[in-house]
């Protein structure tokens, strides 16, 4: 991305290193250290150090192999380090309704695939399994954003989504538009 989050963290006094495969998109080369890294590959080898925390907001859905990404993040974290990640919530009631109606999750249509690079939808169940396999301990899971905001004018889809929400076993507070996890590399 352009580096907006990195700038905010930098301004708050954090020592920040940014990583992306496309250095041209990053606009803060003179403010924040930047490492060109392919997050689908063995990027932990290119970073040159370990970190107290990693922020991976709206990244995992762009990757070919979320499990490899999580293992690489685990390697990069110091003992007790934190990984904060977010992804579009495929378990939101609207996303589930769209899957039944159109065969794709919300934020994973052909347009999202081709235009935004959303290539890997991942459910909360899958992500929970992946983070455990990578060695992380889940500190917190939550979601935010109104999943129904884009159903304006789609009365039937909105109604169907609300019906699904009523019968869903997804935990309270986990049906928002964006799913967020806070993970910890256990202290060794």
Number of distinct beta strands: 6
Strand order of the largest sheet: 3-4-6-5
Helix content: 25-40%
First and last CA, distance: 33 Å
Largest sheet: 4 strands, mixed
Kindly provide the radius of gyration, computed on alpha-carbon positions and rounded to a whole number of angstroms. Answer: 18 Å
Structural class: alpha/beta
Arithmetic mean pLDDT: 92
User: Roughly what fraction of the amino acids lie in strands?
Assistant: 15-25%
Oligomer: single chain
What are the low-pLDDT stretches, counting only 5+ consecutive residues below 50?
none
> What gross morphology would you assign?
globular
Instruction: Give helix and strand order, one letter per element, not per position.
Output: HEEHEHEHHHEHE
Overview of this structure, please?
By secondary structure, this protein is of the alpha/beta class. The chain contains seven helices and six strands. It has helices at 4-11, 44-47, 66-76, 93-102, 110-116, 124-134, 155-167, and strands spanning 18-20, 34-36, 51-57, 77-88, 137-144, 178-184. The strands form two sheets. It has a four-stranded mixed β-sheet with strand order 3-4-6-5. The chain has a two-stranded parallel ribbon with strand order 1-2. The chain is globular and about 50 Å long. The two termini are 33 Å apart.
């Amino acid at each position: 991305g352009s580096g907006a989050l990195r700038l905010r963290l930098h301004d708050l006094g954090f020592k920040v290193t940014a990583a992306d495969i496309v250095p041209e998109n990053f606009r803060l080369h003179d403010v924040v250290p930047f490492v060109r890294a392919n997050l689908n590959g063995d990027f932990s080898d290119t970073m040159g150090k370990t970190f107290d925390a990693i922020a991976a907001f709206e990244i995992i859905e762009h990757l070919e192999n979320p499990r490899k990404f999580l293992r690489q993040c685990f390697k990069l974290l110091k003992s007790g380090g934190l990984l904060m990640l977010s992804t579009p919530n495929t378990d939101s009631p609207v996303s589930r309704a769209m899957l039944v109606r159109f065969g794709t999750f919300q934020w994973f249509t052909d347009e999202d695939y081709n235009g935004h690079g959303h290539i890997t939808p991942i459910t909360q169940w899958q992500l929970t399994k992946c983070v455990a396999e990578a060695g992380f301990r889940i500190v917190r899971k939550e979601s935010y954003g109104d999943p129904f905001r884009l159903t304006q004018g789609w009365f039937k889809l909105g109604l169907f989504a609300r019906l699904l929400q009523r019968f869903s076993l997804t935990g309270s507070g986990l049906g928002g538009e964006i799913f967020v996890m806070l993970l910890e590399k256990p202290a060794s």
